[in-house]
Amino acid sequence: MIQNFEEAVNWIHGRLRLGIKPGLERMEWMMERLGRPHQKIKAVHIGGTNGKGSTLSFLRNVLQEEGYSVGSFTSPYFEVFNERISVNGKPAPEEEWTALVNKIKPLADELEQHELGGPTEFEVITAMMFYYFGEMNKVDFVLIEVGLGGRFDSTNIIEPVCSCITSIGLDHVSILGNSYEEIAFEKAGIIKKCTPLVLNVKHAGAREVILSQAEKMNAPVFEFGKQFQIEQIASEQAGEQFIYDGELHLKTAMSGLHQVENASLAVTMAKMIDHEISSRSIKSGLEKTFWPGRFETISEKPLVIMDGAHNPEGIEMMMKTVRQKYSTRKIHFVFAAVSDKDLTQMISQLDQHADRITFTSFDFPRASAAADLYKISCHPHKKAVEGTEWLESLTPDQHTVHMITGSLYFLSGVYRQLKNQLN
Fold first, then answer.
1. CA distance linking residue 420 with residue 423, whole number of Å
2. Where are the domains of the chain?
3. What confidence category does residue 172 fall into, taking pLDDT thresholds of 50, 70 and 90?
């Protein structure tokens, strides 16, 4: 019997030893034993390489403004572990997490002796989430972020009211495939029969794979730039202004054209979920949306911005926003990453845009050593530091923007310290 939240989290983290085990058999087995709670929720399924969390957050805020109660399932966590399962943006209480672990742990123990093998950390948390929203805390809608890929992701046992694929990029190639088309095939696995799909995929080959799967599943497609459009009006210091579908004048508090696109996906889903949703709820919901570590200004003097660009496409989007907002400033990157990413391509992009780069590492099993990242870079002004020595490089220079970027695990680990130190 798990006694408290700390014990519960330690037990969950202990599942990391099992790594990633694609497949839905263990999830189906656990759901059967729990009374199939995943069938008792109204879910929205959000997949894609980049933009899942932001899109989910935009949608959650819009639905909340309309008066709905909204559950959400996101990963990884950023500030506190239990934020992964939230109701109306508030993390599930620690005592409820402890109760959930005590519900799932006996099943995990039993699976250890079964031919299917023990469930992974992500499978355990997914099972907890389904039980929480299916049995313990009923809400109007549950917004579920895909963990990895889609087809064999442990969330992919739901029959959602709608699905969304935000983007396709080259990420987790060792698991999902080496080409955009292969990755798109895995992501397209969340498309369900006759269930609407909201889509924003730019790569032609990847788009074709997804549209082909949607056609097979008889799923209506609502595609960015086709069934709905946006026009960006202004890019401000804190957010963007745009027009959705030629009629709704909207603002976001999150920066970057990619966030305008994510917001438009959320608006499209909100209108799909509730055909009569008010313009007031849409406007207010978007303006209230904040997602930590996504082009977030941590400090003005020095100008320090945190952005979780953890793959080549993410870095490309980050740089567009930097150039749009801070074209006259020098750029100093502080970068740390996990070792299973396309580090060569990511660092090559940083090399092109940086005035200087500080490579570092962080406490995580798959974290790359600072020295290894340093070796990949060809930049003339680079250095490698361990621990938090890089904090000393955030000089209050009015001509420089300091970009803290790379792995979300790295960013979440330094988030509070950085805020406390600089403000």
1. 6
2. 5-288, 296-422
3. low
